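ENTRY TYPE: paired fold submission
RECORD: A
CONTENT: sequence, then structure tokens
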Amino acid sequence: MGWLIRRLLIVLVAAIAIWCVWIDYKIRRDFSALQWALPARLYARPVELYAGAHLSAAELTDTLQRLGYRETNQVAGPGEYNANGSRVRLWTRGFSFWDGDEPSIYADIDFLGRRINSLRGNQATGDIALARLEPVEIAQINPDTGEDRLPLALSDVPTDLVNAVIAVEDHRFYNHFGVDPIGIARAFVTNLRAGGIVQGGSTLTQQLIKNLYLTEDQTLRRKIEEALMALALELHFSKDEILGAYMNEIFLGQDGNRAIHGFALAAEHYFGRPLDELDLDELALLAGLPRGASYYHPRRNPQRATDRRNVVLAQMMNQGFISQQQMELAQKQELGVSARPTQRGSGYPAFMDLVRDDLSRDYDADALQTEGLRIFTTLDLRVQNTMEAALNDAVAAVEVPTAPGQTAGAPLEAAMVITDASTGDIRAVAGSRRPGYTGFNRALRAVRPVGSLVKPAVMLTALESGRYNLASVLNDSPVTIKLDGNNTWSPRNYDNQTYGDVYLYDALQRSLNLATVDIGMQVGVPEVVSTLRELGLASNPPPYPSVLLGAVNMSPLDVAQMYQTLASNGFRSPLRAVEAVTTGTGERLARYGIETEQVADPTSMYLLEWAMQGVFERGTARNMMSRLDRNLPLAGKTGTTNDLRDSWFAGYGSDLAGVVWLGHDDNRDTGLTGSSGALRVWTDIMSRLDIQPRQSFAPADVVFQRVAQQAIRTGNGRDCSDTIMLPIRQGQMTDPATSCDNNDSLLDRLIDRVRNIRP
């Protein structure tokens, strides 16, 4: 029997030894290669500050508050600002952008209305040409674990936080070897006196082991394994390496399905500010959370959190880290936590669909979820938030009520895309009239006929051919066109009227179907389809005559691409939602540059835009002139499809281009034209955004000619008592039947030309 016991003891000792060797190997291997799975972080377009920038003091302070800046009477350091009427003083934090580091600077900003009037630094720097705020983080693409953290080197952790953690969690940290027998004995005595568990004996090293490797099971085996792993960790790694890992790994709260790990992320989660901007009392609050992040949650349990913070401060004072005066002052402070954590990940789902489409071409899901990439997007929060705040009410204001006795269906839906008129950067997207809607993204996926939105492409085809000008006379009369087989097509104007002889520009401004078909059949439907593709249409619709009146299926994003090309004077730039991608340390991985191709000549584009500006002055959008008076001139076009199923408007100024679609998902009629529906929604939102007037300057080969207001094809019946000045490509004189320039002096023509140039 003794022999058997000895054999069992030898086997047991050998097993324990093997277990210890395995634990030692596992700790050396895993901790040396410790690399957390970090989410990709997505940033909005940063706010740029410069004299003349289109920004109000209120909009700037809103951004600063979202970024967690503190309003103070005296701006003394990064992350602080002071707002006083039309003047805002602030100290930026600085940021590592994809194109370089933005330094932290002091800025004194004077506003004049909705513009920055001047931007000055301190006495040493003087006037500032340009400054950028750090971008707002709008979303993450999180790892499957649900964990999130912002890793920091121990040298970047505030000394007060390090001292607070050591004071309250393990004041003998630098004196023990991973397991603290003295601490265990002290905890045992304290718990025995209290008659329950009121104090733990785990060291920081043991807490780190538990977070990294073990479960929460309170078993003897787990406790022994925890102690052995702590001993192995202390044997092979320095105290600072262990403490640095603890600072980044410890669990400090839950934000929905996102677990908050590490003190750097906890600072942003609870206070909305970086760790290095927190005061002593705030750092002490964070240091008290590892004991029970839910139990001491400062938003849900403010009194418990306050008591715990004060215990931490008292421990710091008792151990000589702070003075009694510092302790008493910090204990008197309010908790100071932000009202709610910054909402990320679900705030802009329609835009995020675009971002994912862009990123999926270059990055797999694993890279986006684990490598801590930083993704700089083109989202403009001022534009996006303004659009979202107004869209639902604007749609409700135009929605046609259900007739008595009829069953009400789903409410009218909407989609909107707003881009930078010059670059094609996507500034805002709405896939529904409801903010934050996560269902069917109509901006990208609702492919619907676009109606009269194609008419600028028809007229551009004519102008590009060299055979037509704005004063070309078209025939707005009934027509029947033979199709394949024995089929025919007989288009009509929306109002079922006909207008006979009309000018090309007038046909576009009043959206006359018959005149558009007349010119479209002359230049050729295949040529019009080619123009649509040059403007950015990705599909290749068959060249049926109905294309001339919008029998082309496009999404709002497709339309935005087409009209962005028009807004950039015939230079096509693919729309983009992502500007650049870097590693977590700032190394650039990808730059999604602006690719530009000229697809229409500048003179044709100027002539077309002149006509499209008239849509607001004399055409289908004239009923919005009074609401847009200070924003004009603008260029745009209404669109309505058969049986009023779709209401469209697309328009642009010098800074923004926007597309609005209204319709029902079941394709029933809306009761709205482009003018009575989408135009009014577009106007409501773009006026709030203070869209800037379109700057149009005539190319050198454009002259202005006077023609009779009433277009006629032949004869000498023109009435030159009522005329209009039209821009004409030099060498393309107007028809003598309509021209009224014959007897005008050169001086009169020059004066009229100056009068007709838009600012």
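RECORD: B
CONTENT: sequence, then structure tokens
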Amino acid sequence: MGRIQRLPSDLANQIAAGEVVERPASVVKELVENALDAEAGRVKVELDRGGVELVRVSDDGLGMDPDDALLSLERHATSKIRGKDDLFSLSTFGFRGEALPSIASVARVRLVTRPRGASEGTEVLIDGGCPAQVRPAGAAEGTSVEVRDLFFNVPARRKFLKSTGTEAAHVTEAVLVAALARPDVSFFLTRDGRSVRQWLRMATRRDRAAQVFEGERLEACVGERGPMRVEAHLGAPERARAGAVALHLLVNGRPVRERQLARAVAQAYGSVLEAGRYPIGVVYVDLPAAQVDVNVHPQKAEVRFADARPLFDAVTRELHAALARAFSLPALGASPRAWSVPRAAPAVDPAPARFVAEAMAGAPGDPWQLDPDSDPATQKSLAERTSVGAPAREPPGGPALFEGTGFYASLEFLAQVKAMYLVCAGPDGLYVLDQHAAAERVTFHRLRRAFASRTVTTQRLLIAEVVELLPTDVATLEERAADVAALGIELRAVGPNAVAVHAVPMLLARARPERIVRDLVAELGRAARRPFGDAADLVLATMACHGSVRAGDVLSREEATMLLRALDDVDFAGHCPHGRPVVTRIGYEELDRRVGR
């Protein structure tokens, strides 16, 4: 007998299960996706002990006849595809035919199903990969799959499961992303006999996002570039979290984990998000199926794009244009839809620094540029696929509150408090602005625009200021001489341990040259492993911080009014370059309540 042998089917299934079934949440994900592929309008998930003892997923989908029910538990048996060409036009979640047999090889499974219109159902029992038992059964239309004693025959795998609460949390997350993927379906989650969450069907993706992220201020962003359409519902910068755990990405309706795409979303916020922080919310990217390969991960959790870099750039550009306007206005407490973007919309900075050189014009040959002559059939296909939850293109809310004037310019300046805050009156409440954060945002915006056009106005110093630095810092400044000059800073090395500053940006004339240089060195050091374009926002933000009006500076009424007007020409005016809120609103109704009126 040769050394190479064909593995028994039960062992092969257990090996496959090691890739597909990681924990109870993996079981739930696969079964819920099967339910959605079966055209279910209602999906119920039940757990006992976090899913280790029991996972039951019931749906009202198409159901199966006895032959299909038995065949569904065999490897590579699927109704989703027929030939290899189908892999390039997938519209279903599943397609490999591995999930059910993999689950059945490591658990005790009971499948009960009844096709629509049939007089009786079918029950299939399979115990840890043993031969299946099939018999008629009474059942509601649709399918119910019970998975008991997960990993009972693979104790080494069961040992690595976490606590009941942790496993239940992972299951909740799996159902939540399915709810985001299909807003037209109702989902119910029960834990140990108690209903814990439900997401009733919604008409649009926007409504589903508001339901899932209840209490969060989400801004709707919609954009198209070539064959790509992006729709996002994202939270304010100050609500961002370390890591992308609260940012959900869906490509053609499929939840995915894609680090570069998540980074592209974060970059749309410019400097207001620190590196490593990601917003709360959901992003839908829809593009032709031929442009994305979903067959690259055992759990179908990752995808590969045909033209990844242009796609990510397009996503960043489209989201930046919408977010810059949306987060120029303050959060409005209990009535977040009472205001809309003014018709005299603020000028939007071209894009984050990494796109400055391209100046919002598409790169030659960019496949994600909007093509007015693109194939109508392709446009129609994309429109049909994104019709569920496609919001109107206009900004949320009713008519603009202010006609012909910006939001900040419409406020009436009342007083400066503690030489730190500007108190203003609006038609619906008092607005308190952090004067340093506001001035920092304006300065940063102007620096960034000047840097983008390479027209930074400089002011020469009467006497060059010598700044002592470490030899490595001097070497860094010499290596980045062209980039430093583009920022409007003119300096020369004077020996191995010092540089002489001869000119600084006119906008930063109030800042000490030494502080500007030290801030510049610090940011260049942090960004040493990245292209300078990616770090320019951080450098400019730090420079703006020390070159702006500060807490403790007394402002005249004219200066305060000019600052308010300047904010209307700035993107992300509601946040300083480092993400801190610029303005807080105290509604008149809140004041009335506090004084007992």
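NOTES ON RECORD B: The radius of gyration is 29 Å. Confidence is low (pLDDT under 50) at residues 332-404.
STATUS: closed
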